[in-house]
Amino acid sequence: MRYVAILPIVLTLTAFILSMLCLFAGSKPGYLEQANLLTLNTSMLGHNVVNAPKTSSKTLNSIGNSVQKDINKAASDVAKAINIHDFYSVHVLDFCEGYYTPSPIANTSSTPAKNVTSCSNQTALFHFDATAILQQELKKGINLTELQWPSAVQDGIRAAALASKVMFVVYCIGTTTTALSFIGALISLFALGRLSALVNLAVSMFACFCLMVASATATGIINRIVEIVNAHGTDIGLSATKGTTFIGMTWSADLLMLLVSFVWLFFFFKGRKEEMSYVPEGKEVY
Ligand SMILES: *[C@@H]1O[C@H](CO)[C@@H](O)[C@H](O)[C@H]1NC(C)=O
Ligand SMILES: *[C@@H]1O[C@H](CO)[C@@H](O)[C@H](O)[C@H]1NC(C)=O
Ligand SMILES: *[C@@H]1O[C@H](CO)[C@@H](O)[C@H](O)[C@H]1NC(C)=O
């Protein structure tokens, strides 16, 4: 038994678990909700239109009147009035939605907490199409364009569709090769030599590369969408926050695989050095 192989075993197992959690976070309401890519805060979406003296839409006018009556409640929840949710959190395979409790707006005595009410079905090659999702939920008779939904947000989210698909595929390859890397490390517990170190080095470097591309794509999508939403959404009460937990988890998994690659590189060179000094005497390598 080569007990030094325990180090890459532990590291690859941790990287594998982390990348699986990145993939399957949000698979049911509340499950690893904090590991989302980003959260859209729609709790005040439409407040500008609803509170405007006269809008072109009858439905919006009547909602406006009922919300106005509610005005004493500091944070009258416009989202509920127009039938949408307070927030939409995006995950790799699905999205979750829910309401902020006790209220969407923080004050001195309470901070908003997410209460997830449902998550969409997990689908491969998932892409979060906010425009379609919101339009579908909106109260009959209200149109997103009436809420002055910015076209820049729509375009930005649409532009991320291809990147989302690439991200999913690379995550799958990265997670699979991380699993292979774990199996390779297990095998080397019984057969650690230069060849096994070399094979393991190649597999873990490839896993590291895939997780790096996946993490970079995810980070790019997150930064881009959050930037666009916050630049164009403030006026209509729309905002977005980055999922820093997710970003931390995905890069940690990648960093672990980089570490594993260095471990195998070290074993490979160590093996070669020992081979050069021991082989003439006919001793076993390592
Ligand atoms: C803070 O918000 C909560 C929930 O909306 C409310 O019950 C509470 O009275 C508010 N406190 C202050 C100081 O405004
Ligand atoms: C949600 O957005 C509203 C309006 O932009 C903001 O006042 C509120 O603090 C946000 N709530 C959370 C929990 O981010
Ligand atoms: C969360 O939502 C569910 C269903 O709407 C509700 O029953 C529950 O009381 C809520 N939890 C909190 C803490 O408000």
Supply the number of helical segments.
8
Assembly context of the chains: single chain
Classify the helix fraction into a percent range. Answer: 55-70%
Total number of distinct structural domains: 1
Work out the radius of gyration.
25 Å
User: Average pLDDT value?
Assistant: 88
Task: Report low-confidence residues grouped into runs of 5 or more.
Answer: 71-75, 279-283
Structural class assignment: alpha+beta
Task: Please give the order of strands in the largest beta sheet.
Answer: 4-3-2-1-5
Q: Can you count the beta strands?
A: 5
The unique ligands bound to this protein are:
2-acetamido-2-deoxy-beta-D-glucopyranose
What proportion of the residues form beta strands (DSSP E)? 5-15%
Shape: elongated
Largest sheet: 5 strands, antiparallel
Protein name: Sur7 protein
Keywords: Membrane, Transmembrane, Transmembrane helix
Organism: Stereocaulon virgatum
InterPro entries: SUR7/Rim9-like_fungi, SUR7_domain
Can you walk through the features of this model?
The protein is α+β, with helices and mostly antiparallel strands and 286 residues long. It has helices spanning 6-24, 47-50, 58-69, 78-81, 130-137, 151-187, 194-232, 244-278; strands at 38-41, 87-90, 95-101, 113-119, 239-242. A five-stranded antiparallel β-sheet has the order 4-3-2-1-5, covered by helices on one side. Residues 71-75 and 279-283 have low confidence and may be disordered. Bound molecules: 2-acetamido-2-deoxy-beta-D-glucopyranose (3 copies). One 2-acetamido-2-deoxy-beta-D-glucopyranose binds at residues 41, 43-44, 100, 104-106, 112, 237, 239.
